């Protein structure tokens, strides 16, 4: 029965029945003339979630990591300079990917728990009078630390020095759960995936690409075949795919968009803020600290929580899984052993989150953590009760 329990990892997320059923479709010919009717509306609807009118949606059968690779290889050449801040495991992995592609990666090292340092980007860009930096890479929501960065502040920093670099943003664990404003923030490529805010199976990298980034294709010399933007756009324009598409995921995406728009994107974001705040209230009641250094950095999709000195967060997540059949996020990289993560994104309600809080609280009590059993759940219950006058509309 334990497979009835929700997961509290920050993706892949729980798949609502409606989406599992939507993905249950028989094989169809992707070269048939009617395939365009399936694909085109999905690409159009996805733009709304990115907050873009002018962006081009490009998808690949891949995970988010494939999206990073597609962004870089379609727009840059070997030896090109990119500017990146490292403040968690996912910004680190994007850096690693760029280095393996032979890019010159200028890294701003930041404390894990902090966010994208707009002021340091501004300095680096102002000093780059020869405009060698071709792109600034930012992880919007650092899933390892539960930190959301301010992308508009990064854009302002870039504009302040009138620097022509492109802005690439990883929104793998934020899109469709927290507001994203591709056009307003002047993003050139945003990279996401199907398995988090879209509540689908893993397997589709989802990108939004600006006209400026599309123009960069013409000079970009990094090799690409599977991830070639032009091949994909040309095929999509005639209603097809350059190779076999992930048909079931395309159907899932169509239904996911229906669900998100039925709930209303603003309501989806408000629900995530509410769930996150419930988890934060519980964390405070336990007397534990978030890895995110300050409230403006708090992520609404994942909370990374330090365990007390002398405790091992891996033992906690293992115990929660073994004893109660519930998965929580382990501490990644520098946070390994020091922090656990509660994912609170996708198809979740107040009640589901309470079950997760109750579970991790039992696991902590079993392992003699200095917490009061029930304290976190009760704090979240009080928060969820407060101000509720109507039943919550959910995506589930
Ligand atoms: C912020 C962020 N970026 C990138 C990735 C990598 O995506 P994927 O595992 O889909 O390749 C993840 C995965 O969790 C992520 O959270």
TrEMBL record:
Keywords of this protein's UniProt record, alphabetized? Answer: Aminotransferase, Pyridoxal phosphate, Transferase
Task: List GO molecular-function terms, semicolon-separated.
Answer: alanine-glyoxylate transaminase activity; L-serine-pyruvate transaminase activity
Organism domain of life: Bacteria
Q: Which Pfam families match?
A: Aminotran_5
All residue ranges annotated as the Aminotransferase class V domain in the record: 29-281
Q: Which residues carry this modification: N6-(pyridoxal phosphate)lysine?
A: 196
**What are the binding positions for substrate in this chain?**
341
Could you say which cofactors this protein requires?
Answer: pyridoxal 5'-phosphate
* InterPro entries reported in the protein's UniProt record: Aminotrans_V_dom, Aminotrans_V_PyrdxlP_BS, AspGlyoxATase, PyrdxlP-dep_Trfase, PyrdxlP-dep_Trfase_major, PyrdxlP-dep_Trfase_small, SP_NH2Trfase/AEP_transaminase
Per the UniProt entry, what are the Gene Ontology biological process annotations, in alphabetical order? glycine biosynthetic process, by transamination of glyoxylate
Question: Does the entry feature the keyword Transferase, yes or no?
Answer: yes
List the Gene3D superfamilies: Aspartate Aminotransferase, domain 1, Type I PLP-dependent aspartate aminotransferase-like (Major domain)
User: Would you identify the family this protein belongs to, as annotated?
Assistant: Belongs to the class-V pyridoxal-phosphate-dependent aminotransferase family.
Name of the protein in its database record: Serine--glyoxylate aminotransferase
Species annotation: Ruegeria profundi
